[in-house]
Amino acid sequence: MNFTAGRDPHSDPLNLENIRRTLVRLEDTIIFLLIERAQFAHNPRMYTKDGFADVLHRDGFEGSWLEWLLRETEVSHAKIRRYDSPDEHPFTPRSQLPDPILPPLSYPPLLHDPTSLNVNPQILSFYINSIVPAITRTVTERLGKENDDGNYGSAGTRDIECLQAISRRIHCGMFVSESKFLSSPSSFIPHILTPNPSALESLITKPAVEAALLARLEKKARWYGAELGPDGEPEEKSGRKVRPEEVVRLYREYIIPLTKEVEVEYLLHRLDGLSQSQIDELMKSD
């Protein structure tokens, strides 16, 4: 999303159609990154605190290989102000990241509190425990019990890219909520004041849109993950770089539910710090 653009409907970051286009582009990004990660083995050693203790613990770091690589990557990204952008959220605590070395950019005030939510711990958990084992199954089966191909740098780099894309996709839920809230504040405010999370979730949930999303993902993953024959059609017998059902499962079981949690939690705090007169003005602004 272009956060420095004016509030023209075609460039407005809170225009729901623009947000949807961003989410559709992220579908492609996530699928291709999963394909990249799936070429390496599971390498479970990368995800345990003791896996690289001999290398990392001597410098005082107590986490896993992936956590160390995330921190090292995000330190560099923080310096170039990646996490100043309202749609970017680091996996490393912000208190452990340096200030940018570049001058700050002036972003328009888009969200009520862009730093109030960070569900990256949940993303990291489901990615490590459910997604990586599933998408690396083919390589793992070929290696047998070893389950390890030694490509820790390459696999870890792909993990970080996957995690960052999934995080951006899920935290975009705050922009969805803000857009829907501004379109009809009076529909949301009573359920925020109550508070009523179930009612808020009903307001933001579109079953038909979710069904279309999952169907589109299955088709994309089937094409992107296949080897193409001379005629440009997928060769079913050649196997797939990543199973389409795993991409669909990632969205159905993890990305969509966690995005809804972000959207609802954002709405529950949307009125924080507002006076009663400001809330009354919002009620009349539909």
TrEMBL record:
Where it sits in the cell: the answer is: Cytoplasm
Q: What is its main location?
A: cytoplasm
Task: Identify the Pfam families for this entry.
Answer: CM_2
Give the pathway.
Answer: Metabolic intermediate biosynthesis; prephenate biosynthesis; prephenate from chorismate: step 1/1
Asked if the Swiss-Prot or TrEMBL record annotates the protein with the keyword Cytoplasm, the reply is yes
Q: Identify the enzyme class.
A: isomerase
Known EC number(s)? Answer: 5.4.99.5
Q: Which SUPFAM superfamilies match?
A: Chorismate mutase II (SSF48600)
| Record GO terms (molecular function) | chorismate mutase activity
Task: Say which domain of life the source belongs to.
Answer: Eukaryota
Q: What is catalyzed by this enzyme?
A: chorismate = prephenate
Question: What residue stretches are annotated with the Chorismate mutase domain?
Answer: 157-263
Its GO biological process terms? chorismate metabolic process; L-phenylalanine biosynthetic process; tyrosine biosynthetic process
Keywords (alphabetical) are:
Amino-acid biosynthesis, Aromatic amino acid biosynthesis, Cytoplasm, Isomerase, Phenylalanine biosynthesis, Tyrosine biosynthesis
Q: Which GO terms describe its cellular component?
A: cytoplasm
The record ties this protein, via InterPro entries, to: Chorismate_II_sf, Chorismate_mutase_AroQ_euk, CM_AroQ_sf_eucaryotic, CM_II_prokaryot
Quaternary structure note: Homodimer.
State what protein this is by name.
Chorismate mutase
> Which species does the entry assign this protein to?
Rhodotorula toruloides (strain NP11)
Lineage here is: Eukaryota, Fungi, Dikarya, Basidiomycota, Pucciniomycotina
